[in-house]
Amino acid sequence: MQQSPRAGREGDVLAVVSQSGPSVSFFDAASDHYLGSLETIAQPHELCFDPTQRLLWCSITYSSGFYGANGGPRTQLTVIDPDTRRIVEVVDLAPEHAPHGLALDAANGRLYVTVEGSADQPGGVLVIDTQTRRPVDRIGTDAPGPHWVAIDGAGKTGYVTSKEARFVSALDLELGALTAKVEVPGSEGLAVSADGTRAFVAAPFLGAVGSTPPGIQVIDIRTASVVDTLPLEDAAMPVHLTSTGRLLAGEVRMEDDPASGGSRMAPGRLTVFSADTHKRLGEVEVGLCPLTITSSPDGGLAYVACHASSTVDVVDLETLQTLNRIDHAALGASGAHGMVYLPRPA
């Protein structure tokens, strides 16, 4: 008898950002039951969980809006205790601004945070000591607005994407230096394989589709070059790798709107590939504008946060069936964004 995909998840929690709430909501991972919310500074974007310190990091990127269409940058990271659901500290990074992408090297106690550039310097990645919660270094990316960052399992190499720059920045995290620019049309989300040999990048970014067909660019980290493209029907924003080697991409879809004569959001698509063979394994429909993807530690479940519908789809990755759709908007929250899976305390 096949075990339920929910089995053994008692005590685990899913944390989801509401960008326009602004808040972080918590759900029981075994039942999707709502556990409560914590109000944050406007407007939260991404989440990252540090299992060593057992703290959540939340980036506060803009006072309103998104990259390229916002009410001005913010400069804060909010540190949250997920067990007591309280804010531990608000870390002000000024004069650095618009912190967004977050990637954790738990073994070395380092959090990597993208920040946008200014008149006197390009964008970069701040290196935060997770014990003192203060910056200890800044690595330039030579791109004006680095947005997403991912690192390998050993904490040696990082890759940073940018919508505007026509390259992905490769960083040597031990040297604290930009070492290569991989030619890729303006890019969105990314993931780096655990063995540090490949990076998977969604490109081109949503606003540039038409000039280059949408897909996932596969980068050989040893040669800093694109070696394959996994084709998609529509542009993807989030990219995620599970512990079992599945590569997940969230495609944003549009459709004609007869009422306005223009277009409107259509249900998005979660597309699944094998990270090893690059074979397309299947797809499943999700909510409007998938923006963040995460998975359970065992790789059995995928969670897709969809910003425009403010929903989270829970997908069984063995059967590619949707188990539930969490209606974040029903809680009075809107703009589902950053999201992490929190294993129960040991």
TrEMBL record:
It comes from the Bacteria. Coiled coil: none annotated. Transmembrane segments: none annotated. Gene3D superfamilies: YVTN repeat-like/Quinoprotein amine dehydrogenase (2.130.10.10). InterPro entries: Host-pathogen_enzymatic-act, N2O_reductase_N, WD40/YVTN_repeat-like_dom_sf. This is YncE family protein. It comes from Streptomyces mauvecolor. The lineage of its organism: Bacteria, Bacillati, Actinomycetota, Actinomycetes, Kitasatosporales.
